[in-house]
Design goal:
- There is one protein chain.
- The protein folds into 2 domains: about 180 residues, 3-Layer(aba) Sandwich (Rossmann fold); about 220 residues, Dihydrodipicolinate Reductase, domain 2 (2-Layer Sandwich), CATH 3.30.360.10.
- Helix 6 runs parallel beside helix 7, helix 7 packs antiparallel against helix 13 and helix 8 crosses helix 11.
- The chain has 13 helices and 14 strands.
- A hairpin with a 2-residue loop joins strand 11 and strand 12.
- The chain is α/β, with parallel strands linked by helices.
- The longest helix is centred in the middle third of the chain and has 26 residues.
């Protein structure tokens, strides 16, 4: 498939099967594959006394003043500052999105926060100056209380139930990956017609956009992805994150119910590969490959090793126009820093992107192009200076305020669920493991 230009993709959303419990990232252990980058917070300006006099949350007043000067007006119709409710106050919120929100107060104001863990809920609430009355344990409470124009769903696990609640309330959603564990959840969201932006931040990186331009009209011979993934803790130590103060077994029960729908009787080993490695990390790589070369049409080989540890994953497949795709994902306990390399080779040259650690305040991705200049080999390099996390939230702001579609939404999220189910099915068949559910027909 020819490289696709990074045009906005229309997306929609809707209701979903299962219990709509908040699956707070703060309520879980961090798993390999979570993405994010820390930023320093910008100063938060003190709100005016009018908010206190009128009994309004300070953030609502500050944000509404940026829009119309009148609190309570639905700002998604005003095209200015958007009041957001943060759903899930764990790593993704604290390390990535809250710093962007605080820095971009021209775009967003956090007016509510929701997480089943009081420790992370209050930490993010204090940081964003969310009034205690607007810190909620359940997403239903947040939506019922009102005072938000959109939701940022930053919890871990499947997000179908939470996004369905938002869709039912008419609230646009920014949803961290994965969209959901099942295609049934994605299809229900589509039927509901909600507005949803999916958190595939790498497709917003200028290096990826330039690479897509370089590859336009070309047919890749080979696409090679290598991810070197050290433990998240080593990359998060400098961020002083607040951890959850409790474990919530009901959340894991709901996760397993959804995995039953997706994978049937697949064993725990296969389920962990599906949710933590494939949906938890590899979907980011699939999103980049989609922009550069299109989705894989078939997997020829899926392997995971070493035995008993299963910390390396290999996928080999075929692209639509016959090119080959190779993904190597390695969780390396002692590796010094995260690194991802994506290389596209064809008869005209090589286009390569190197992504640094998403948690560290390092320069952005680097694009390297090897081609010909008047018959002579030429190599050129460009390093991104723009934060893809800020770019994706700016795109979400445009979705909320103008209706402009984003680079990734329900269609892309569903496509990746199908691709991951196909990979998991082949892995189970190769290893004589049982597999059922949606994966059988994926």
């Amino acid at each position: 498939m020819h490289a696709r230009q990074l045009q906005p993709q229309a997306s929609a959303a809707g209701d979903q099967p299962g219990q709509p419990h908040l699956q707070g990232e703060g309520a879980r252990h961090d798993q390999p594959g979570s993405q994010g980058r820390g930023h320093r917070d910008e100063p938060v300006h003190q709100p005016e006394d009018r908010a206190r006099q009128e009994g309004l949350p300070e953030e609502v007043d500050a944000c509404s003043r940026a829009g119309s000067g009148r609190p309570g007006i639905p700002l998604r119709h005003l095209g200015d500052c958007v009041r957001v409710g943060i759903v899930g106050a764990g790593v993704a919120a604290q390390a990535i999105h809250v710093p962007v929100i605080l820095r971009r107060q021209d775009l967003f104001s956090a007016t509510a926060v929701c997480d089943p863990s009081a420790s992370v809920r209050d930490a993010v609430g204090e940081r964003c100056r969310v009034a205690a009355a607007h810190r909620h344990e359940r997403v239903e409470e947040l939506v019922e209380a009102g005072g938000v124009d959109a939701l940022l769903v930053l919890s871990s696990g499947s997000h179908g139930a939470i996004c369905a609640i938002a869709a039912d309330a008419g609230l646009p959603v920014f949803c961290e990956k994965p969209l959901s564990y099942t295609t049934a959840e994605a299809d229900a969201l589509e039927r509901a017609g909600a507005r949803l932006a999916l958190g595939y931040m790498k497709v917003y990186d200028p290096a990826v956009r330039r690479a897509a331009e370089q590859l336009a009209g070309r047919s890749p011979r080979s696409v090679e992805v290598v991810v070197l993934h050290p433990p998240a803790e080593a990359q998060l130590a400098h961020l002083r994150l607040v951890r959850a103060d409790a474990v919530f077994p009901a959340l894991e029960d709901e996760e397993q119910r959804l995995l039953d729908i997706a994978l049937g009787a697949a064993p725990a080993e296969a389920r962990d590969i599906y949710r933590w490695k494939l949906l938890g990390s590899v979907v980011h790589d699939l999103a980049v490959v989609r922009v550069l070369a299109g989705d894989p049409v078939i997997w020829n080989r899926v392997d995971c090793w070493p035995e008993g540890e299963l910390s390396s994953l290999a996928l080999e497949g075929r692209l639509r126009e016959g090119g080959r795709l190779s993904i190597r994902w390695h969780f390396l306990a002692g590796y010094p820093s995260y690194r991802e390399d994506v290389r596209v080779h064809d008869e005209h040259g090589t286009v390569a992107i190197t992504f640094p650690s998403p948690y560290l305040p390092s320069p952005g991705a680097t694009l390297t192009v090897v081609d010909h200049d008047s018959g002579r080999p030429r190599t050129s390099r460009i390093t991104s200076a723009t934060s893809p996390f800020e770019e994706e939230l700016a795109a979400f702001h445009r979705l909320v305020t103008t209706g402009a579609a984003t680079a990734a939404g329900i269609d892309e999220g569903r496509a990746d669920i199908v691709t991951c189910q196909r990979a998991l099915r082949l892995y189970c068949e190769t290893n004589a493991f049982p597999v059922g559910g949606e994966a059988v027909a994926a």
